[in-house]
Structures are given as structure tokens and as C-alpha cells.
Amino acid sequence: MSEPDPLDDPYSGDSFRLFVQSVQDYAIFMLDPQGVVSTWNSGAERIKGYRAEQIIGRHFSVFYPPEDLRAGKPAHELKVATAEGRFEDEGWRVREDGSRFWAVVVITALFDDRGTLRGFGKVTRDVSERVRAENELVERRRLFFHLVEAQEAERRRIAWDVHDDSIQAMAAVSMRVQLLARQVPADHLPAVRALDTAVSETIGRLRDLVRRLRPPTLDERTLTEAVGAHLRQLAAQGIETELETTELTGDPPPEASVTLFRIVGEALTNVQKHSRANRVRVRLRSIDRGTLTEVTDDGVGTDVVVVGGFGEPGSHFGLQAMRERAEAVGGWWELISEPGRGALVRFWVPDGPGPGAGVGQ
């Protein structure tokens, strides 16, 4: 009977060594008690650039940038690992060619049965791509938040121009038309009154445009005040409203508040125009360095499904606009509804351009 192949036993020393040697995504190697490299796997060669014959026998401090060497970081890490059993870190490391990469590192102290330190196991993973992606996300968010600020500034300027120029000019025309109505012959009076009505309706439309460009509530002190004012407008129309902010730990920054208010405003406009709801609730919660908002109504609901930022046939533009606003600043948006069961609009917006985990949908 032939001897069993040790590699047939997955727990044998040879099998484990073969596994460690074959791993490509992690640098896995051993250090002696003084921090000298004693083993080297293929992942370590791929990540750090050293061949086994180049690095075995050298101190592991060769992987650290000059500022970490001056701070005594390699010795500190071994000291902590010895005292606590392990050490975990994330930071810059240096390849054989001198280039840097961002690494997640775990050092584990290895003791024998008598408690004697026999060395250290070190596992390093190159997460440069992850860090680069996070930095790009932060930069995109910063750009989008600046864009929101610029858009709001332009909206404010246009609103002021319309209010100070167009509306005032039309108001002057209205006054002159009313004066003319008292002076014209009776047979011309219907035409003059029709003109006065047209001018008044135009002024009304312009004022509505100003309110949509820059609602006065946006200039109030907090987001909750602005949303509360919007809900009071619905309440005046007979819709029961509720604003829940018990889990809002602080008012979001102005740039985030603008985006939140715009989306809430669009959602409440949909409730007012389409839902035939008797009750609507807005809930604001601070979570994952951002604000999670839920707008719930008991209206007629909808079978519209919004996927990838675009509605299925039959949806209206407001749904897409809400989603695009949230996603533009690194957040997300969703609509949960079915006919006859009301609707839930739920979205998350980060507090600012910094990295945030977001909330799973």
C-alpha cells in the first residue's frame, strides 16, 4: 500500500505552506523576533516587488517610508504586537523600486507552548485602488456640492432680478391700466379690464416662478424650519402632516440642506398634485455622516418603477429629477409604492464631500 500524499491532507504542513505560497492578493511572510524577514510568498513578491532572495535576511523596516523610520514605527509595531498579540495598521509602504502604496497591515506575534516569542506573522494588502477610488469619490462630491452652490446662487440672482425688475415693471403697468380703466369710454372698458386681468395673472405667474426659483424658506435658519413651512402649506389645504426629527443629531450643512430641501419639496409637490393623500409624514435621521429622509403618504400610490435614474413608461419627470439630485452629490434615492397603498420616497444625502459609507437600499 502506497504512502499517503501529504498534500491530500488539507491541514498538513505542506498543504498549508503551498496555500500561503500561492496567495497572490496578500503579502504573507514571517519575521524572526528581531523583525528580520524569514519567509516570502508570491503575493509579497507581487505587491512589494522583492524576490525572495532579495529580501529574506533583511529587516522589515525596509518597507517603511523615511518619516515612519524617523518615528520608530517598525519597532513600535513589533512592541505592540508582542504585548497585545497583534498589531493592525493602515498607511504608506514602500516597494522595491521606491514607489509607495497604501497598505492594510496585520502583524501577529507567534509564541511557542512555553510562551517564548518565536517571531511574527505579517500580512499586508495593497488597497491603493480602494483609496484612489475613495479620493475620486470625494473629489466628485466636492465638485457636485460646488455645482449645487453655484446653481442656488444663480437661482437666487434670477429670482431677485425677476422680482425687482419684471414684477415691479408689470405692477406699474397694472396700475396704469387700472387708471386707464377709469378714463376710457364705456365701450372700451371690457378690453381694458381684460388687459388688467392678463397683467395680474402674469404677475402671479412671475411670483410663482420666484418662489420656485428660491423659496423663502430656503433662507431660514434650519432645514427643519424650511421643511416645516412647506408642510404647513399642505396642512392649510386640509392634509394632515407630521415632521419627525428626533433622530436628527444636528442640522446638515447648508449645501446638503439645499439638496435635501429640493428633493423633499419635489416629493411634497407630488403628494399635493397626484397622491390624493389625507396624511403625509416627513422623517429626517442622521446616519452614516449624512441625512436619511423618508416622505410617506397614504394616497393612491403608483405602479411606476424607477430604475437606474429613469422611470418606466408612465412615470413623470419629477421622480427622475429627485433621484438625479440625490445621486449627483453621492447619495441615493428610491420610491416604494403600489396602487392603493400610498408611497414612500426615501433618500440619503451625505453631509459633505468627504467619504461616507451610505446606507444600503
Write the layout of secondary structure elements.
Layout: H1 13-22, E1 27-31, H2 42-48, H3 52-55, H4 66-70, H5 73-84, E2 86-94, E3 100-111, E4 117-126, H6 128-181, H7 189-213, H8 223-235, E5 240-247, H9 254-275, E6 279-286, E7 290-297, E8 306-307, E9 310-311, H10 317-328, E10 332-337, E11 343-350
Parallel strand pairs: 5-6
Antiparallel strand pairs: 1-4, 2-3, 3-4, 6-7, 7-11, 8-9, 10-11
Helix/strand order, N-terminal first: HEHHHHEEEHHHEHEEEEHEE
- Side by side, the strands of the main sheet go 5-6-7-11-10
CATH architecture of the largest domain: 2-Layer Sandwich
Indicate the mean pLDDT: 82
CATH superfamily of the largest domain: Histidine kinase-like ATPase, C-terminal domain
Count of spatially separate domains: 3
Pfam families: HATPase_c (PF02518), HisKA_3 (PF07730), PAS_9 (PF13426)
Domain PAS: 28-68
Protein name: PAS domain S-box-containing protein
InterPro entries: HATPase_C_sf, HATPase_dom, PAS, PAS-assoc_C, PAS-like_dom_sf, Sensor_HK_TwoCompSys, Sig_transdc_His_kin_sub3_dim/P
3D structure, described in words:
Helix 8 packs parallel to helix 9 and helix 9 packs antiparallel against helix 10. Strand 6 and strand 7 form a beta hairpin. The longest helix is centred in the middle third of the chain and has 54 residues. By secondary structure, the chain is of the alpha+beta class. It is elongated and about 115 Å long. The chain has a five-stranded mixed sheet with strand order 5-6-7-11-10, covered by helices on one side. A four-stranded antiparallel sheet has the order 1-4-3-2, sandwiched between helices. A two-stranded antiparallel ribbon has the order 8-9. It has ten helices and eleven strands. The protein folds into three domains: 121 residues, Beta-Lactamase (2-Layer Sandwich), CATH 3.30.450.20; 82 residues; 142 residues, 2-Layer Sandwich (Heat Shock Protein 90), CATH 3.30.565.10.
